[in-house]
Amino acid sequence: MKSVKTDYHVHPDYSIDASPVQIRDYCQKALELSLAEICFTTHIELDPVRREKDNFVIMNGKKISVLHPAWLDSYFEEISRVQKEFKHTNLKIKAGLEIGYCPGCEKDIEKIVNNYPFDFILGAIHCLNHIAISSMKESPSYFKNKNLTALRTDYFTILYEAVTTGFFDSIAHIDLYRRYGLKYYGPEILTVHRGAIEPIFREMARRKMGLEVNTSSRRRGLKEFHPSKEILSLAAESGIEIYTVGSDAHSLDELGEHIEEALALLKTLNLRNHVFSRRQATPCQDCSIKASNSIQATQCLQLTDSRQQNQSGGQ
Ligand SMILES: [Zn+2]
Ligand SMILES: [Zn+2]
Q1: In angstroms, what is the span from residue 312 Cα to ligand 1's centroid?
Q2: pLDDT digits 0-9 by tens, 94-144
Q3: Contact between residue 200 and residue 156 where contact means Cβ atoms under 8 Å apart
Q4: If you measure from the C-alpha of residue 290 to the centroid of ligand 2, how many angstroms do you get, rounded to a whole number?
Q5: Which of 45, 175, 198, 287 could make an SS bond with 54 (beta carbons 3.0 to 4.6 A apart)?
Q6: Which ligand is nearest the CA of 15, by number?
């Protein structure tokens, strides 16, 4: 049985570090790749200390504050226009965000996520001590002042805070510190999560939060996805049931990269990929089991092939 392909981590031209690829062009490519769903996750950072660096998005080629409603209005208008255009296809197009969490930014996050009809909110930790550890250029200035124990404390403390805010549907690239940290700290970083991540996973499970399998690590020469198979197994053992997959595409050629492999990995661990509508998760594989008159079932029926429907019909 072939898995339904989705990409739930895509950066259109609104994201500050993305290529100028428009939502429509990504959708066209998604059709070519036979994706069943694409979810746009424009990246926003809200840390006021980094205001000059990254508290903005790009609209019509110009920088605009992430807090300015004009870009959100334009984002939703554009997504809705493209949804209409692709209505006749099997592609579902979803509106989301990737929010870099920073303590103290809760009010701003609330303002954004509560005032717009998002389908999906990804939470991420990109910065520690106001330094982007996700950036090749910036990360050494954090790493050089911190040993691995300090990195562990800083990262998992802020991650726990992010989880307990309740703002996020899924956590993106949960072991992102490996991206540039592996070269700096060596292989010891691959096990730094042990004992720290389990209580966070239990809290996520309690809140029915999701966890992302992010394939962008491959583009950066790492062997495993974010998270590693070990971390994914710990998530499963801790009771997390909702998983999403994303390429973290910043350009057209990155869309859908390694998604099939990520889905295969989920399958080997008996875990399920999910899609979201208005912040509600639905598992991808068994959508046809649900009542045929529910909105979610109607959406998901298109994601299942007729063989699957026959197999699960009447259950
Ligand atoms: Zn990210
Ligand atoms: Zn991203």
Answers
A1: 36
A2: 999 999 999 999 999 999 999 999 999 999 999 999 999 999 999 999 999
A3: yes
A4: 32
A5: 45
A6: 2
Beta bridge partners of 107: none
Q: How far is the CA of 136 from the centre of ligand 2 (A)?
A: 15
* Residue 315 confidence (pLDDT) above 50: no
Kindly give the distance from the C-alpha atom of residue 70 to the centroid of ligand 1, in angstroms, as a whole number: 23
Q: How far is the CA of 31 from the centre of ligand 1 (A)?
A: 24
Please provide residue 212's backbone torsions phi and psi, each rounded to the nearest 5 degrees.
-90, 140
CA of 9 to the centre of ligand 2 (A): 6
**Residues 35-73: tens digit of each pLDDT:** 999 999 999 999 999 988 889 999 999 999 999 999 999
Strand partners, 282: 275
Alpha carbon of residue 303 to chain centroid = 20
User: What are the boundaries of each domain within the chain?
Assistant: 6-284, 289-315
At the second CATH level, the architecture of 6-284 is: Alpha-Beta Barrel (3.20)
State in Å: Cα 2 to ligand 2 middle: 26
Task: State in Å: Cα 11 to ligand 2 middle.
Answer: 7
pLDDT of 288 over the 60 cut:
no
Distance in angstroms (rounded) separating the CA atoms of residues 52 and 58: 14
Ligand 2 midpoint to CA 216 (Å)? 9
- 310 Cα–ligand 1 center, Å: 39
Ligand minimally distant from the alpha carbon of residue 226: 1
Distances (CA, A) of 234 to 10, 18, 193, 210, 292: 26, 32, 10, 14, 34
The pLDDT value given to residue 75: 98
Element holding 157 (H helix, E strand)? helix 148-165
Distance CA 121, CA 6 (A): 16
Global pTM value = 0.90
Å from CA of 233 to ligand 2 middle: 23
